[in-house]
Design goal:
Number of helices of chain A: 16
Low-confidence stretches of chain A: 1-6
Structural class of chain B: alpha+beta
Number of helices of chain B: 3
Number of strands of chain A: 12
Oligomer: heterodimer
Largest sheet of chain A: 5 strands, mixed
Radius of gyration of chain B: 14 Å
Shape of chain A: globular
Order of helices and strands of chain A: HHHEEHEHHEHHHHHHHHEEEEHHEEEE
Order of helices and strands of chain B: EHEEHEEHE
Low-confidence stretches of chain B: 5-54
Chain lengths: ~400, ~110
């Protein structure tokens, strides 16, 4: 599939964020918020020539307008990369434009309703406690590697009906597709092929051993003509569910625990006022939104006064929108009792996240159970927090010490 | 736009004094049919593609904010309960639900 080896584009360090932003620059990964604040002060939408040309809207208004505009902005490409091969790997419904989008999304909604999540909740609580049992006696741990990573892996594996113990394999593929794959097409394609083959095996097995998991839901789905979905559609949706179900929530739980590790007052408040938890979760989602999406510009248009030309991608930054002071008073502060919070962490418009109820439930349970067992904890000064790069941002190493500081 | 009617004018008065919403930022096309926000003279525009409450999934937040006021269908889409009248004592929850809907899909009016 890939051509002969070509020279990969360079990614020199950014010196001019307004005209040459790069979301894979280590400074963005480390702390993107001041970068976005600076860009917002210049212009609602900026542009870079990197990634074969890409826009970045940084205001809530611009992000919302683009998210709602499926006529000018297509979802057929949802990751901003160094190359743009003609053939795109589809993952319905995230890569679907209208009119294909709606039926593809409809069939995924029932397994993710709040009622469905109520049924899953006890299992997620049990998973959290099993994980904590393993490390609590150590007095410290890497919360990302030992806790936050495993919760969404096991939850989505359970919903899909695939073995939880294959979790490390899923994480490897996600890393290859979402992070390495931005710059390395061979790695991305290999990971996509491996993941596809894995799911194809599970589909085959269910032909003779039907189940009532998400894989069977997709296998049993019928389009408006009563026909089953194509293999491409089923496999693409399964790849999406696995990726979307893991990296995103792993990041959101991790960022929340990072915040609580360094903010004892918020920990104490959540323990004293457990009814505050839903509001705090929404604020963690706003302030530490993990997911940035993308769109491809199909037709020329204007967004917030900025001309937008086809042939470019758009880095659709919901996290930057969520930090826009024009929309959120004290946008740069984490206010765990923020009463009005129209955050866009789960997206806006037709592509709004199918799994938001699952994500919220996992975050809530993960934090509640951690605080019950480990009410006091702090960042390990001898360790280093590292984060994922690119599309989904969250801690991948989070060394913490348990108990109060001396 | 589904409507939840508030029944207590006292609450409405306290709302009118609040800061105007930044909804004006989206107000490029004030299409006919836009509803007036109670606490400002800004119209809440029907943005192209703006989703009505019945089409939005993602309502666990709604469940924790105002479970008494919304019911969900099998797709997890929310509708106001009954004719949308807000029982006494729940007005704050109706406003909170509206203030926390990113799709601007909840409309609350006072009578």
């Amino acid at each position: 599939m890939s051509d002969s080896v070509s020279v990969l584009p360079d990614h020199p360090p950014v010196t001019d964020w307004v005209h040459d932003f790069d979301h894979t620059d280590p400074r963005w990964t480390e702390n993107p918020f001041p970068i976005w604040d600076g860009l917002r002060a210049e212009c609602p939408v900026v542009h870079t020539r990197r990634f074969l040309g890409c826009y970045l809207p940084t205001t809530y208004e611009a992000v919302k307008q683009i998210a709602y505009d499926t006529e000018h902005f297509s979802s057929r490409r949802v990751i901003v990369r160094d190359i743009r091969p003609e053939q795109t790997a589809s993952a319905p419904p995230i890569t679907s434009d209208p009119p294909e989008h709606k039926p593809a999304k409809q069939l995924l909604l029932p397994p993710f309703t709040p009622d469905a999540m109520k049924k899953l909740e006890p299992r997620v609580r049990a998973i959290c406690n099993e994980l904590i049992d393993e490390f609590i006696a150590d007095g410290k741990c890497d919360a990302a590697a030992r806790y936050t990573k495993h919760i969404p892996v096991r939850a989505i594996a359970h919903m899909l009906g695939i073995p939880e113990k294959d979790g490390d394999l899923f994480i490897k593929w996600i890393h290859e597709i979402l992070e390495l794959g931005i710059k390395d097409d061979d790695t991305l394609m290999r990971a996509v092929h491996e993941m596809t083959a894995y799911f194809a095996g599970h589909i085959e097995h269910r032909k003779t051993h039907p189940t009532d998991d998400l894989i069977s839901t997709l296998m049993n789905a019928r389009d408006k003509n009563g026909q089953p979905l194509s293999d491409n559609h089923v496999l693409g949706s399964l790849r999406l569910l696995l990726i979307a179900g893991i990296d995103t929530t792993w990041s959101a739980i991790g960022s929340s625990l990072w915040h609580l590790a360094k903010t004892p007052a918020d920990r104490d408040r959540l323990i004293a006022e457990p009814e505050l938890m839903p509001t705090a979760i929404e604020e963690f989602l706003r302030a530490y939104s993990p997911v940035t999406m993308a769109r491809e510009v199909m037709k020329e248009t204007v967004v917030s006064g900025c001309p937008i030309k086809p042939g470019n991608m758009v880095l659709l930054s919901f996290p930057a929108a969520n930090r826009d002071p024009a929309m959120f008073p004290d946008a740069g502060k984490v206010v765990i009792d923020r009463k009005e919070n129209r955050h866009a962490a789960f997206g806006l418009g037709i592509h709004r996240c199918v799994g938001s109820n699952l994500g919220r439930m996992e975050m809530t349970v993960a934090i509640e159970e951690w605080l019950k067992r480990i009410p006091d904890f702090r960042l390990d000064p001898a360790g280093q927090v590292t984060r994922s790069e690119g599309t989904v941002r969250g801690p991948r190493q989070l060394p913490v010490l348990f108990g109060k500081a001396n | 736009m589904p409507i939840i009617h508030k029944q207590q004018k006292q609450h409405a008065i306290s709302r009118i004094k609040r800061e105007p919403r930044p909804v004006a930022a989206f107000g490029k096309a004030l299409a006919s049919g836009g509803k007036k926000g109670v606490w400002s003279n800004v119209e809440i525009p029907h943005t192209e593609g703006a989703r009505r409450l019945g089409e939005v999934s993602g309502t666990r937040a709604l469940q924790s904010l105002a479970p008494e006021l919304f019911e969900l269908d099998e797709f997890g889409n929310a509708h106001e309960i009954g004719d949308g009248s807000v029982p006494k004592g729940l007005e704050d929850k109706a406003w909170l639900a509206q203030a926390n809907c990113p799709e601007i899909a909840i409309d609350v009016t006072e009578e």
